[in-house]
Amino acid sequence: MRKLFLFAVAILCATVFAYGSTVKFQDIAKCRAENKSIYGVRSMADGEHFTIIKGKKIVRCSYADRTDSLALFEGDFKIGNYTLSPDERHILLTDAKSVKPIYRRSATADYYLADVGGKAQKVLEQVRDVTFSANGEQLIYAKGNNLYLYNIARSESKAITADGEWNRIINGTSDWVYEEEYGFTKAYAMSPDGAKIAYLRFDESAVPTFEMMRYDDKLYNKAYSFKYPKAGDKNSVVTLHLYDVAAGKTEQIPTGEQTDQYIFNLQWTPSGELSFYRVNRLQNHFEVLLREASGVVRPIYEERCKTYVERPSAATINFIDGERFIVSEETTAGYNHLYLHSTKRGRLNAITSGEWEVTALVGTAKKRVYYLSTERSPLQRHLYSIGLNGKGKRCHTPNDGFHSVQPSVGMRYYLCTATTAAMPNVVTVHRASGEVIDTLVDSRTKVAECGRWAKREFKQFITERGDTLNYYIQLPFGFDRSKKYPVLLTQYSGPGSQSVRDRWSLDWEDALPHDGYIVACCDGRGTGFRGEAFKKCTYADLGRKEVEDQISFARFLAKQEFVDAERIGIYGWSYGGFMALNCALHGEGLFCMAIAVAPVTSWRYYDTIYTEIYNGLPQDNPKGYDDNSPLSHADKLSERTKLLIIHGTADDNVHFQNSMEMCRRLNAAGKQYDMMVYPDQNHSMRPSATSLVRQKMIDYTLENL
Q: What is the DSSP string of 103-139?
């Protein structure tokens, strides 16, 4: 008996050794933390200085002189965020510990005011979306779905609205779907002269209520109810209002006869006129409207497309003076480019052109436009400048890589963060000409000291259908071409996304090459930065072509002499989870393992703005919703495919409902699968399971692939 016991222990130890990961996720997390940057950058009005957060300090720095540094504020709490007053004599700050997240971008916090060089005093508790008034004498903020003005000198608040009510009326902040899909929470804007405040009012009374169970380690669990419009259902009715600060009166601004539309991006032009966006429900008609001083509201720009107009953001339209503005759009040329427009004369001229994409407008100065683009490679980003007339183009980033830029006021200087797949962040400060003044951050040495990571090799392959797709591959340490290795495919694959790019990143998959695994990633049809036709070919049919491409990629790799074709797995999160499930179900046993985290299992369960722009309305396109849903194909899961579904129960974005209904279908089909549930964790597995879930995926891969 003792010999049998010892033998069993020996077998157990051998198994643990075989499946134990060489690298833990905590090692990866420590290394990621060494990839430094500059935080809280704000250009000051003089265009010669910028401010940053350094722990408990706000520090003013000179672009041109590294020795010119001054602490504007030093407190006794970690700073979460800050804003300088218009005259830059005062600072509005939040205590990081006081921040209480609501959804992905929204949060309440305690706000403090400090004179430059002085001490902070708490002025507002648990409010949100706070900004200085135009004269710096008041604060505008939201609380309890209402909008307020706070007089700093008198320490008094005055209500701008009074009808705010949870799950019914929202004033001055966005509802859930606008926040998630249009990326903003502050839904008001003060005029340059401080006389008027424009704000949006969301009437979400008719929006269906979703209940998300909260457990919170309590004896009785409780449902959290919030308004969430699923595809095809009613949205908030959004109206635009203008509040007169002196008179204390409000008027409604006409936004058109339709109520089933999207209104957002309130912006005051340099000449003091109000502009805003209007997008129809199908999101194939985008307009910019201007309210003139006379009160007349008229369109100054519109864009139409047979499929959809990509979701506009605040960066889509940029006014450069009282009449002219720059538009970023893709439907004219089939690639995203910049165009100069006039509020009176329409389109003046194209600024950029070519079979590549402008990815960001950085700034304008002296009749020149600075922008980031994919001209050198769709996998990279480079800074260019060009005349407003489209002439005199110049590249300011000669080295390969992925560049992001933070400009000074007036575009005299800029901070540039450069990275490649093999190089972590290097932050430099430049003159507008591109001349390097100084290096502020160089993460290369510290990152190199914390460990070795498998190199990403960027390649292309051609599918059976003739499509050329970009991919990267990471070979295991000690790679021997004569041996065969298991492969994990990692992907996201959502419309307009990009996972294959020449940019440094590190996540749980990077542990696998240390244990003899290949990691590969492919951007299939529907992903971004390769032109409108490539991106929009998946319209109204989400999940078919993308799945075809990932299966083609797996078959392509299976044919490589160094790949173990019997050991190919796939992973994805969110849209990627939808893809991982579908690949497992349609792969006919090609994948021996699949991990789906927070997967969408039916687009009928997801929100209006995201789903309908890419798939149309379910009332008009039921096949596009049901034919590619994993729920419709649960019976196709191969017996050889080990499937792990992971979800957080407090996911307000992709509801836990998605995984529960997937389990229902798999159970009905008699299929076996594994599942990990993380109580009270959101879509990103926050607040406490971000590391835990990644270590689980490392371990599961080593055990099953």
A: SSS-EEEEEEEEETTS-EEEEEEEEEEEEE-TTSSEE
pLDDT, tens digit (0-9, with 9 covering 90-100), for 508-547: 999 999 999 999 999 999 999 999 999 999 999 999 999 9
CB 522 within 8 A of CB 550: yes
Tokens representing 581 are 């499930």
Helix (H, G, I), strand (E, B) or coil at 553: helix
CB 516 within 8 A of CB 552: no
Q: Are 488 and 499 in contact (CB under 8 A)?
A: no
Report how far apart, in Å, the C-alpha atoms of 348 and of each of 338, 352, 558 are: 11, 13, 53
The pLDDT, as a whole number, for residue 55 is 85
Reduce the DSSP state of residue 215 to 3 states and report it.
Answer: coil
Nearest alpha carbon to residue 303 among 270, 261, 331: 331
Tokens 């049919």 -> residue = 541
> What residue ranges of the chain have pLDDT lower than 50?
1-19
Buried-state track 498-521, b at ≥16 Cβ within 10 A, e below 16: bbbbbbbbbebbbbbbbbebbbbb
- Measured between alpha carbons, how far is 429 from 427 in angstroms, rounded to an integer? 7
Q: Token pair for residue 496? A: 């307009």
Whether the CB-CB separation of 521 and 499 falls below 8 Å is answered with yes
Least Cα distance to 628 among 570, 582, 667, 571 occurs for 582
CA separation for the pair 558, 550 (Å, rounded): 12
* Residues present in the chain in total: 705
Q: Given this model, what pLDDT does residue 13 score?
A: 35
Joined together, the tokens standing for residue 150 give: 């706070």
- Residue closest to 176 by CA, chosen among 208, 147, 135, 141: 208
Cα(432)–Cα(387) distance, integer angstroms: 14
- Taking the C-alpha atoms of residue 106 and residue 183, their distance in angstroms, rounded to an integer, is 10
CA dihedral 31, 35, 39, 42 (to 10 degrees): -170
Residue 549 and residue 188: Cα distance in Å, rounded?
A: 43
Long-range contacts of 355-364 (CB under 8 A, 24+ apart): 355/531, 357/330, 357/529, 357/531, 358/328, 359/529, 360/315, 360/405, 361/315, 361/318, 361/326, 361/328, 362/405, 362/407, 362/411, 362/414, 363/407, 363/411, 363/414, 364/318, 364/320, 364/326, 364/388, 364/411
The distance of Cα 37 from the centroid of its chain, to the nearest Å, equals 18
Question: Within 10 Å of residue 598's Cβ, how many Cβ atoms?
Answer: 29
Omega into 687 within 30° of 0, i.e. cis?
A: yes
Q: Hey, which residues are catalytic here? A: 574, 651, 683
SS (H, E, C) 564-633: EEEEEEEEEECHHHHHHHHHHHHCCCCCCEEEEECCCCCHHHCEHHHHHHHHCCCCCCHHHHHCCCHHHH
Q: How far apart are the first and last CA of the chain?
A: 34
| 3-state secondary structure (DSSP) of residue 269 | coil
Q: How far is 527 from 523, CA to CA, in rounded Å?
A: 6
Instruction: Say what the alpha-carbon torsion angle 445, 449, 454, 455 is, to the nearest 10 degrees.
Output: 10
* Surface-to-core class of residue 320, CB atoms within 10 Å of its CB (0-12 exposed, 13-18 middle, 19+ buried): middle
| Pair type for strands 593-597 and 563-573 | parallel
Pick the closest to residue 683 from 146, 185, 228, 24 (CA basis): 228
Q: What is the pLDDT of residues 544-598, one digit of tens each?
A: 999 999 999 999 999 999 999 999 999 999 999 999 999 999 999 999 999 999 9
d(CA 316, CA 634): 41
The residues, ordered by sequence, that sit 6+ positions from 65 with a Cβ below 8 Å of its Cβ are none
- Cβ burial, residue 275 (10 Å; 0-12/13-18/19+): buried
